[in-house]
């Protein structure tokens, strides 16, 4: 079955779901900050799905007291299932594999793996939100004696095991699997994972259960204090609506880890920068200016004229996108040392300092 046939097949189910509306995919709107409880909120962003163009409107509110930013109203589990569907798997599987296995990401995985070198050799490492296991596959070159396991809600984790990228696959939610995995791992990673979770605090608590005493947790997340978020607005890729539910300032995450009984042993605001802000904004602006692609969540397929126009306009813009990407890579060493850096890293030890 080719892609067009698969889209036609899926369109029936998608249109049946969408006939019921998208409001049901959202929980009740919060009037207080989920991080500190303050009622002093402001709207930081209002946008649509710029990635897949599935119907719906999404709002990110920010707390005026602690600066925590969060999707409000937040998607329900049913809503998350709808908006994640065909993004990392199904129709989107090939593109996701190409992105996560790209040269730029492999370089980033190596840097993340090396960040643990000052703290000894990991014995057994659990990569939470591992997807198809691209990080463990690369990290083995830095830690060849380490056993790498992966945890994810999607079937990608099973595929990662079949391909030998991880040694053991755990499919499900960390918060539910933690009791079974108690004290199993001396190292855990959450790379661009916490921002996808409905309750980051619960994830950090579950990680303490899974880690051995003295074990290390390494976290990398988007930095909501990045200046580019204000400059680029809805086209700042790390907003990543509707998938990113929480954008946590570094100071907030550090205090939370310490309150849970971790000791923060390292923080880094520069190296984790992903040099893609300008390119990502250009890509988002382009794909939102083009005629819509043939996707099953659209009521009808595009006409032949629309298909041809989309293809011609996209390929005519490729040289410009390549130029923006090249310039951004050249500027990356400079930009990552400024407040334009778009991500940060925290390494924490399970247990308080003695």
From TrEMBL:
Q: Name one Pfam family in it.
A: Methyltransf_23
- InterPro entries the record matches: SAM-dependent_MTases_sf
What SUPFAM superfamilies does UniProt report for this protein, alphabetically?
S-adenosyl-L-methionine-dependent methyltransferases (SSF53335)
Swiss-Prot/TrEMBL keywords? Methyltransferase, Transferase
GO MF annotation, one: methyltransferase activity
Give an example GO biological process: methylation
What is the name of the protein in this document?
Class I SAM-dependent methyltransferase
